Amino acid sequence: MRMIKAIAAIAALMFVAACSNNNEAVAPPSGATVTPGSVGDFKQNVGDRVYFDTDMSSVREDGRATLAKQAEWLKKYPNYPILIEGKCDERGTREYNIALGERRATSVRQFLIAQGVPAARIKTISYGKERPDVVGSDEGSWARNRVGVTSLE
Amino acid sequence: MMIPRHLRTVLTAVAFAALAVPAHAQLTIDMTKPSFEPVPIAITDFSGDNVGAEMATVIRNDLQNSGLFRSIPPGSFIERNINANAAPRFQDWRSVGATGLVVGQVSSAGGNLKVDFRLWDVVASNQAAGLSFTSQPNNWRRLAHIIADAIYKRVTGEEGYFDTRVAYVGETGPLNLRVKRIAIMDQDGANNRYITDGRTLALTPRFSPTLQEIVYMAYGENNGPPRVYLQNVDSGRRELLGNFPGMSFAPRFSPDGTKVAMSLSQDGNTDLYEMDVRGHGMRRLTNTPAIDTSPSYSNDGTQIVFNSDRGGTQQLYVMGAGGGGEKRISFGDGRYATPVWSPRGDYIAFTKIMGNSFGIGIMRPDGSGERLLSNGFLVEGPTWAPNGRVLMFFKQQPNSGGRAGSVTLSAIDVTGRFERQVPTPTDASDPAWSPLIPQ
Amino acid sequence: MAAFTLKLPGPMTIFPSRLLLVAALVLPSAVLPSIASAQQQAYIDDRLNQLQQTLTMLTGQLEQLQYSNTQLKQQMEKMQADYEYRLDTLEKGKGGGGARPPAPTPTPMQNERLAPPPSTASAAPPLAAGGNTAGADQMYNEAFKLLQDGDYAGAERGFKSFVQRYPQHVLAGNAQYWLGETYYARRDYQSAMTSFAEGYKLYKASPKGPDNLLKLGITLSALNRKPDACAIFARFGQDYPKATDLQKRRVDQERSRNGCG
Predict the structure, then answer these.
(1) Which of B248, B211, B254 is nearest to B233 (CA)?
(2) Do C56 and B315 touch (CB under 8 A)?
(3) Which one of C49, C56, C58 would you mutate to disrupt binding with B, by most B Cβ within 10 Å of its Cβ?
């Protein structure tokens, strides 16, 4: 009997917590924590970036985990239009990289669609090597510039 | 300030009667030889008007920058106040080490500027060339370039390339918010101006081989995909070449200027298409699951060289101009990109991506005779001078300390002997050399 | 495909997250098919990507093979022409002496197994420094014949005494090279290395010089001395800028095979 009471209490607590979360979504963001369902929440708690190997456009294992989380989140918050930005490091030629960035963006898009995100919600754009995330000419910077960014703005 | 430079320009050239007895000329250079000495040439300030000295400076820079001439410093000249219509004291010019001597006279002719110039062969003691030009006074720089072209042609036997312009991408600001505008300037860096406003990224300008028109790609407002535009560089009139659902980019004119080959991208797949410039009719040229991009027509218009990763890495392929019969031509180590067919037809220039460096190279259209002309951390995007003897490309230094490395234009001759930086007011990439400006 | 048409129940998303989780646990049968369909789609996409990559790789390999095939064919034709020219010369009884027209290209390096061009000997003009020239030629030819017959020990003796007796002969560099080959063919890489190294030291400018240096590198590689092999391949370009394309390509191949930087 005590057990059941405890479960009920926890359930009630959870409900309250869930409700208060829900309310916060309407209220302006407060202090350090990000609002669930906000762009900040997506960036911080889900991760808006997946990285690619040199000259490759297939999503890596680590990227798959991120994209699976993205898909869950995006299905939960269906009102955000989604733009996937494909980008490349500077170690390629301009025109080819524009095509390669498009291929990367498309890989991300296909993955999200396969996970149940409606295709019509997702647009893609490639910035090739024209809009690097990180300014640097070393392997670390290049690795972070070979990226697919899921942008909700 | 911008003067219409094309057909409306009044420009006449009249060959002079030679003043001296013709003799066997010594004033020649064979630039195809594996080694040669630059021709020492004395260019005197043109007499008759203040602009004459400025014209001489332009001519000196043009010739000196070609790497084929050595301009003798005017301070060392012995014969002064030289009469443009009389034979010079050849001995004086021989003793300052000149092989050639350029003299000129500027005068006013009914509101126009009249320039008479002579090229003297100092070794043979005779006149090698003599021409007279008339044009509007504000065209004086062009007149100087035209004279430099005439000297270049007389000495090398090749067409000159000084009376040309270069379109490029002017870059300003930090890398993640970089502003990239299409700019245009004279081949020597003068008369620089911008022809896109910089609100969206504009890239990869390419000149029409016949008209003063360029094609380029620009992103749309609000994350709109890149599209291809055609723009007249003098009138500024701009035209969208096709509004396709995906990206359209990597445009390049056919040699007769009536067609533009470009890449269209949809669902991550990029193929080549050809558009009729006037009617906007589209024709598909390739159909593969690979990236096919950077097309460039052969000088006779019958073939197209392009860049594809259908074999796993970027390589160069040649096909018929209507598509089909693709044949890979690059087989060296590394990746190959941005092929550009020479206007002479003898070479294809390309960017080569090796382990830690990039190179600019040339090969014959069948892929043989590959030769690297320049290399560096990042060199990319060669474009040919209209005479097919000089290439321009861009060079990026590594970024460091959170700051973008400089991006500059360089020119190099096909022998790879003589490389120099081309001055631009801002960082610059993606040069595109114009044909000779119509006179 | 049918599974693909199943969709997640739409209205769920208006519930707060934790309740959704509970709902998923309580109602597995309703939700699982959708997950399966997503996974299946991802699986199919994966397979397609893999196939695409394989196809791309095969395309690249095919291009490379076609290219090497064309190159080999051209090489064969050149050799054939050379061979015929030399036979022709022999038949007309002009072998060895007299001025040769510039037509034939030098016979290129053969593959690693022994396949010596039959003509190397007869091509040499008699230009030996002192001694019995006719005797030298004969000695070389005999050693060469033994090599062709696969009598490597006999060929070794022949070439060895040739280089001892006629170290200045125009064919001495060739003899030294083939001496190395007699060891290499018998997988005596240590002796082969010594012999090729000797050839490089003494007959650097010999027509066989480039082949000799190349083979020295290959032998070092066979001895598993890759850094040394790489150093040798690096020398090649400096020492023999005018080597044939085939030789240069071979050096490039060896460099990448040995992972030289």
Answers:
(1) B211
(2) no
(3) C56
Instruction: Specify if B6 maps to a domain.
Output: no
CB contact under 8 A, A126 and B265: yes
Residues of each domain in chain C carrying CATH 1.25.40.10: 126-257
Q: Which of B180, B263, B353 sits opposite A92 (nearest CB)?
A: B353
Which residue has 């009719």 as its token pair?
B281
- What ipTM was estimated for this complex? 0.90
Q: Which homologous superfamily is C126-257 in? A: Tetratricopeptide repeat domain (1.25.40.10)
Q: How would you classify the pairing of strands B193-194 and B179-186?
A: antiparallel
Is there a contact between A98 and B226 if contact means CB atoms under 8 Å apart?
yes
| Cα–Cα distance for residue pair C192/C181, rounded to 1 Å | 7
- Residue among A53, A76, A82 nearest A152 (CA): A82
Q: In chain A, what residues touch C13 (CB-CB under 8 Å)? A: 75-78
Closest by Cα among B360, B288, B362, B294 to B326: B288
Do B51 and B149 reside in the same domain of the chain? yes
Q: Check CB contact of C252 with chain B, cutoff 8 Å.
A: yes
Boundaries of domain holding B221: 165-433
On whether residue B259 sits in a domain, the answer given is: yes
The pLDDT assigned to A153 comes to 74
Please tell me the predicted confidence (pLDDT) of residue C150: 80
Whether A25 and chain C come into contact, CB under 8 Å, resolves to: no
User: Residues B199, B278: one domain?
Assistant: yes
pLDDT at C100 over 70: no
Q: Note the pLDDT tens digit of each residue in B388-434.
A: 999 999 999 999 988 999 999 999 999 888 899 999 999 999 999 99
The count of domains in chain B is: 2
